[in-house]
Write a structure and sequence with these properties.
heterodimer, A: 470 residues, alpha/beta, FAD/NAD(P)-binding domain, Arc Repressor Mutant, subunit A, 14 helices, B: 103 residues, mainly beta, Ubiquitin-like (UB roll), seven-stranded mixed sheet, 1 helix, binds FE2/S2 (inorganic) cluster
Chain lengths: 470, 103
Amino acid sequence: MKRTQLLVVGGGPAGLAAAALAAQRGVETMLVDEQPRPGGQIYRSGGFTSSTLDRLLGESRRHGAELVTAFEHSGAVYRPRTSVWHLDPDGEAGLLVRDAQGAGASETIRAERIVLATGAMERPVAFAGWTLPGVMNAGAAQILLKSSALVPEGRVVLAGSGPLLLLVATQILEAGGRIAALLETAPRNMNAAALRRLPRAGRGWREIARGIGFYRYLQRRGVPVHFDVDGLVAEGTGALGAVCWQSGGVTHRLPADLLLVHFGVIPVTHATRAIGADHVWDQAQQAWRPRLDEFGATSVSRYAVAGDAGGIGGAQAAEVSGRLVALDAAARLGPMSRDERDRLAAPLHKKWNAATAVRPLLDALYPPPAFAADPADDIVVCRCEGVTAARIREAARRGCTGPNQLKAFTRCGMGPCQGRQCGPVVQALIAAVHGRPIETIPPMRVRPPLRALSVGDLARIARADSDEAY
Amino acid sequence: MFRRLPDDERDRVVLTFEDERIEARRGDTLAAALLAHGRMVTRETAGGGRGPFCMMGVCFECLVDVHGRGGGRGLQACMIEVCDGMKAGRHRTQSSDEPEGAA
Ligand code: FES
């Protein structure tokens, strides 16, 4: 079995920063990532030059490239297209290494310490018609732009809330695309309302100004912006044909070819739940996150978390937290004294505080919409198994108290996505039926394989394991 | 639904999706190539066709069958890259999918 001192899972800003610093400090480090190129979703690139993309993505694209270069020179081993399908308490990780077209080979590696830097995903919100082809996450459109230089075309509608939605909207316009409407679920006077609620808002003026600037820009470019949007519906037979919504007491309907939705981001906690780490409910962000100490260590020995997977802080904070986790790893694994760790960590902790200061304001400005917690009965919640809200409510009324039991009642969460898309909605539905606070409903348990494996993959894993015996 | 930026000068790659010839660019994920071609449906369920939703490997809506790969269980089109001569088609999910309202 192969060994490494430190295994970093995930090649976004947190993972890259963690692996680079650990390797520079003399820790034998390997980084595995599912994508073919480093950068994570935020600094994703297709690996080709494009002056249009340079212009559209600007500073972010440059910074991502710098981070990747630093990582590549650090001496850390890099394994792209590699999924972790199993993690155990002794630091053994089952890896599935795929070629570009998806054929896999398995491998086991033992690490003294493992950093999970699995990032964030867009918050799944089940609304009528969200399963129709032509409805996608706004972040998906941004990935298509960054990695394949594709720009949305036709009658494009954006809906939801949050900085990413606004950013994607401006990028579409600047790439020469058109937007038929932007449907903002937050109220028009959101800034004032959020400010009143937030004593710490003083630090977030720039962010508010940016938000207001985005709306002004969109309106100047002729994009109709609707606020306080409720009752979002995607209509169509076979594919999206129109988008309906209510705002200002009026029901609207707009023909559409593409609906891009965004309701904020939540930590990807699949791996931390699989290792049985303690999680806490983040009320402000309406999501689970692992309980971590100030160096990112989880409640499970050997395992730490860096970046958004530990709670949404954004790319800057992710990078800083990656460095903190690396310092801690260096101190635990030998090459660094605790004193040195603490000395180097002090300015990083300050940086992290500064980078995350704006989060409470953003959380208050762009909360998930009310309809997120209360999908109508006929809406499909579990996309994989086709389980509707009605069936989940019915199971809850028949005595099902949590998402784990629900699997047996309905198969909800048992499809290939393993509850990644339905988990948050299921939690809200069960809480509502039982009239209990949402944080009392536990998240779905995760069992290996952490990734859906094919029969061929399993055969190869079995073969590799029996080879090990000799 | 999507168009390519004009200064994208990557090499062309030709693949087949259910007897349709699709021209893509080297480095495209299969999902990106299909969307650029206007094909929104990549998977069939009892409740209707589905297409790529997240483009980052978490939703599994982009499952396709690639000739000679994946052992029939479906591969995520957003996680694999196109290559010349690739043959693929919609994955048909055999699950407890029920048409809407069947509950
Ligand atoms: S589009 Fe979501 S997994 Fe591929």
